[in-house]
Amino acid sequence: MTTPVVVGVDGSASALSAVAWAAREARRHRVPLKLVHAYLVPTRGYPEIVLTGHEVRQALEDQGRRWLAEAEAAARAAADVEVEVALEHSGAAGAMVWESERARLVVLGSRGLGGFTGLVVGSVAVAVAAHGKCPVVVVRGEDRADGPVVVGVDGSPASEDAVDFAFEAASARGVPLKAVHAWSDFLVDGPYGSRFTVDWAQVEAAEQRVLAERLAGRSEKYPDVEVQRLVVRDRPVRALLAEAEGAGLLVVGSRGHGGFTGMLLGSTSQALVHHATCPLAVVRPIDGE
């Protein structure tokens, strides 16, 4: 069975942008697109004299079907792709994590309504990124189809899988890949840095070797992908935000070590989610570690 690209639908403009992006991604990989809307019946706030639980649920289902129909139209307008729709009585996070177990990719808008309210800045995004079983893309900024794929590289297991994902994405799009390895020495860069003598050329050469080792073997597998290696002495979030300008996709691991620690679960992830000017893909290690 072909695993689909799954996208969350909630009636917002952000979700419709995510649907269009997901449709084009499904088309690139010749897989189906699945549109999912999840809703929960509120347990408070609807006095029995006004509405019954059944009436509330029916209203939410009707609304969900309208949003799914609108999303399906947007998907078909964006790409010629097979579309499936699903209306689920569930919390948004639980629904998307469950869908991720049988998806190629889960796609989310950067802002939401209804069941996906606060999707990125709240607990739903954290849950999907931390517990999802497949890569998660948060769609924001412009969809630059001809822009390069940018990937953050630090050598952690999540970063290794992110590099694989980025190479495949660049190959499918027919665009270059920019591999960014950002590093900083907090001791030297800090208030006591003047007490140390550092051969920055030697450090730069060592970091270049680290990046080369992390990319080894991928160019043979993807000979069509032009690779640009970039080693910068900077904080990872700042370096990645700079490289995201003009990019078609920014790819990071779900967690890392060194500069990429806690990616998408802490301040670095929040900065990328709120300020990146292109879609952001978060890739967890295949074994979920």
TrEMBL record:
SUPFAM superfamilies: Adenine nucleotide alpha hydrolases-like. Residues 1-140, 148-284 form the UspA domain. Signal peptide: none annotated. GO terms for molecular function: ATP binding. It holds the Pfam family Usp. InterPro entries: Rossmann-like_a/b/a_fold, Universal_stress_UspA, UspA. The keyword ATP-binding applies. Keywords: ATP-binding, Nucleotide-binding. The keyword Nucleotide-binding applies. Belongs to the universal stress protein A family. This is Nucleotide-binding universal stress UspA family protein. It comes from Saccharothrix variisporea.
